[in-house]
């Protein structure tokens, strides 16, 4: 055990039904931190190249970050890693809730699962007591039912990460659920869990935490940051939606970008609306994709329609606030659902993927679809993108006529939408089965002309922020080893205060919005910082709320005395290793975006009219900035030396 970490991980061999503890030395944590970083190091070293993503050799890791559960604000995240069956490459997903802190409290820095069980099982962890239990009775239950059943069988204090029926049926757009609907959604990792017949990981909560190097400094740094959240909400926040709506005609013309604002307003807005804040504005401004990326927000999904999905409309359904562990904001809420039950309120990505993207303006329909996804364990982004593709394919006559059965596929029909989501969740024969593996596979069945409407990068469905609005997000879609995700570059935002010392350290100035040549170097700074930050187990939104002193927290916890350079190098190392993983699998280092997302041809009207991305300049700059071979994605020799990657990469 070291200060700030346990120094041990669990290994579970499902084929043999065995569990063992492995001690890890401190240098591993110094180099890779926790979460994604520790996962990348372990998977690169231990997984054979070419492992079948749905086979016994794939390693599925559940990892809290190095500060997860430590009690500092926003420290509730855990990460899941594996080879992705959706992209064929590096797979990871990040999730809030309460499972991560419970795993941390159990005394492990991660759990790695190999093999395939001969019957459904779940892993039960209560400190030293770790066992595989029969889950035959749980197989077929949805995620909410599974959590409840495991709590009834064990203890009310047990925290559960599980798959629903979508993961059991190996849907490649399925994820892993905790807290009744918070999902580690991306990269199809629910299917990996399903392929192993692992229904759930259940952890009994414990107050124990790894020792801290300097508890007083740790508490002081956390307390001082917490002050930021003690102020009374500003009256301005509740005016924000109306204010923005009135200003929209002006901001459209000015090409204004909404990415951050005065800190107190951002905090208040997150508290009141969560990520739904400003949804209507983002549709109007061209950030939100509309009608499978072929529409223009203010023209094709105008305010009269998007207001039904507005932040104010969403919070009218709130029953109580919901926050992840140690969150001073609680951006979520438990809402009253159209069926009379309760569940998590829809976030921005769900609202838009099941809203403007498919031309639906009925919030009840979004909530019904979101709840089906949460219970089945489906990624709402991927579901929305895949359905939008199907609707366009039907409109253009690309779908075999009998595939949808009696369902009249057309844009914006709420009842059809709900049925489609149900069919995907059940992998129902016909269209449900076609769509359950995501948009790339659906398009591959239809031939070359359908490819233009399949909005993915490297097989993963693009998220709900457009590169034409903020090119930095498109860069992340293309180059990240887990492509298609807005979180890989924090939706393309580079101007946040927390990044400033790292720009200074690297001698780089953040790029202007459409300065394509400078985007690569800019995100050559942002991305390593983000990967290291992720690996601490902190919520990305914290970076939009002031300047969280994460380096102080890390040093007070571990006693390492890291300065910006070491922290940056840890994140750079993690990113380089994620790239090396894909290179070893023979995957290209970056992916061409669909023409619509590149702006080819450019939009003729609207806030992003005339914009065509210079993807080549951005990607070239990124690979140069990170010292990666642009052809293979492997770290260049000088990068290997700088990051001391020789041993793990097998380079003598
Ligand atoms: S801001 Fe939201 S997502 Fe982030 S930790 Fe808080 S509740 Fe969770």
* CATH class group of the largest domain: Mainly Alpha
Number of domains: 3
Assess the beta-strand content as a share of residues: 5-15%
Tell me the helix content.
40-55%
CATH superfamily grouping of the largest domain:
Aldehyde Ferredoxin Oxidoreductase Protein, subunit A, domain 2
CATH architecture of the largest domain: Orthogonal Bundle
Q: Total helix count?
A: 28
Query: In CATH terms, what is the fold-level topology of the largest domain?
Result: Aldehyde Ferredoxin Oxidoreductase Protein, subunit A, domain 2
Q: Say what oligomer this is.
A: single chain
- How do the strands of the widest beta sheet line up side by side? 2-1-6-3-4-5
Largest sheet: 6 strands, mixed
Low-pLDDT parts are none
Summarize model confidence as the mean pLDDT. 94
Q: Which ligands does the model contain, each kind named once? A: iron/sulfur cluster
What structural category characterises the helix and strand content?
alpha+beta
How far apart the termini lie comes to: 30 Å
User: How many E-type strands?
Assistant: 17
Which key terms come to mind for this protein?
globular; 28 helices; Aldehyde Ferredoxin Oxidoreductase,  A, domain 1; six-stranded mixed β-sheet; 3 domains; 652 residues; Aldehyde Ferredoxin Oxidoreductase Protein, subunit A, domain 2; Aldehyde Ferredoxin Oxidoreductase Protein, subunit A, domain 3; binds iron/sulfur cluster; alpha+beta; 12% strand
């Amino acid at each position: 055990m070291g200060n700030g970490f346990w120094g041990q991980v669990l290994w579970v061999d499902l084929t043999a039904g065995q569990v063992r503890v492995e001690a890890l030395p401190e240098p591993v944590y110094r180099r890779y931190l926790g979460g994604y970083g520790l996962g990348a190091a372990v998977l690169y070293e231990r997984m054979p190249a070419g492992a079948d993503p749905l086979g016994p050799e794939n390693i599925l890791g559940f990892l809290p970050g190095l500060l997860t559960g430590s009690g500092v604000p926003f420290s509730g995240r855990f990460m899941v890693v594996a080879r992705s069956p959706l992209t064929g490459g590096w797979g990871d997903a990040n999730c809030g809730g309460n499972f991560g802190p419970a795993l941390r409290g159990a005394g492990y820095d991660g759990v790695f699962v190999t093999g395939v069980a001969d019957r459904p099982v779940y892993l039960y962890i209560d400190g030293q007591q770790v066992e595989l239990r029969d889950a035959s009775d749980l197989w077929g239950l949805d995620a909410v039912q599974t959590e409840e059943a495991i709590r009834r069988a064990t203890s009310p204090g047990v925290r559960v990460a599980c798959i629903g029926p979508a993961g059991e049926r190996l849907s490649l757009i399925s994820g892993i659920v905790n807290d009744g609907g918070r999902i580690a959604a991306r990269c199809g990792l629910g299917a990996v869990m399903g392929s192993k017949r692992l229904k759930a990981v259940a952890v009994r909560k414990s107050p124990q935490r790894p020792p801290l190097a300097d508890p007083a400094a740790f508490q002081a740094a956390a307390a001082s940051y917490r002050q930021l959240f003690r102020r009374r909400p500003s009256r301005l926040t509740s005016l924000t939606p109306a204010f923005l709506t009135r200003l929209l005609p002006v901001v459209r013309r000015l090409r204004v970008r909404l990415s951050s604002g005065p800190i107190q307003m951002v905090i208040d807005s997150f508290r009141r609306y969560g990520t739904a804040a400003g949804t209507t504005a983002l549709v109007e401004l061209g950030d939100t994709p509309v009608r499978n990326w072929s529409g223009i927000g203010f023209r094709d999904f105008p305010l009269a329609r998007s207001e039904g999905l507005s932040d104010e409309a969403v919070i009218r359904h709130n029953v109580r606030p919901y926050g992840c562990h140690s969150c001073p904001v609680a951006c979520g809420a438990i809402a009253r659902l159209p069926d009379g039950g309760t569940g998590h309120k829809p976030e921005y990505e769900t609202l838009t993927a099941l809203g403007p993207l498919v031309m639906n303006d009925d919030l009840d329909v979004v909530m019904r679809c979101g709840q089906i996804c949460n219970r089945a364990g489906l990624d709402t982004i991927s579901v929305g993108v895949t359905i939008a593709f199907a609707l366009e394919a039907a409109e253009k006559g690309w779908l075999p006529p009998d595939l949808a059965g009696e369902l009249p596929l057309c844009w914006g029909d709420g009842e059809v939408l709900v049925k489609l989501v149900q069919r995907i969740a059940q992998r129902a024969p016909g269209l449900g089965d076609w769509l359950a593996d995501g948009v790339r596979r659906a398009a591959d069945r239809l031939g070359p002309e359908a490819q233009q409407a399949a909005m993915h990068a490297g097989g993963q469905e693009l998220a709900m922020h457009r590169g034409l609005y903020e090119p930095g997000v498109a860069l992340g879609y293309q180059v990240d080893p887990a492509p298609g995700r807005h979180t890989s570059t924090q939706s393309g935002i580079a101007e946040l205060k927390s990044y400033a010392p790292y720009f200074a350290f690297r001698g780089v100035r953040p790029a202007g919005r459409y300065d394509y040549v400078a985007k690569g170097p800019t995100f050559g700074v942002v991305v390593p910082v983000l990967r290291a930050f992720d690996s601490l187990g902190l919520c990305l939104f914290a970076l939009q709320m002031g300047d969280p002193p994460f380096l102080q927290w890390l040093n007070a916890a571990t006693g390492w005395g890291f300065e910006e350079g070491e922290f940056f190098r840890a994140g750079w190392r993690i990113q380089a290793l994620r790239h090396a993983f894909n290179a070893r699998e023979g995957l290209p280092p970056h992916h061409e975006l669909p023409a619509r997302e590149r702006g080819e041809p450019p939009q003729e009207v609207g806030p992003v009219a005339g914009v065509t991305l210079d993807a080549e300049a951005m990607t070239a700059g990124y690979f140069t900035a990170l010292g990666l071979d642009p052809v293979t994605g492997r770290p260049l020799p000088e990068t290997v030396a700088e990051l001391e990657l020789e041993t793990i990469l097998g380079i003598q």
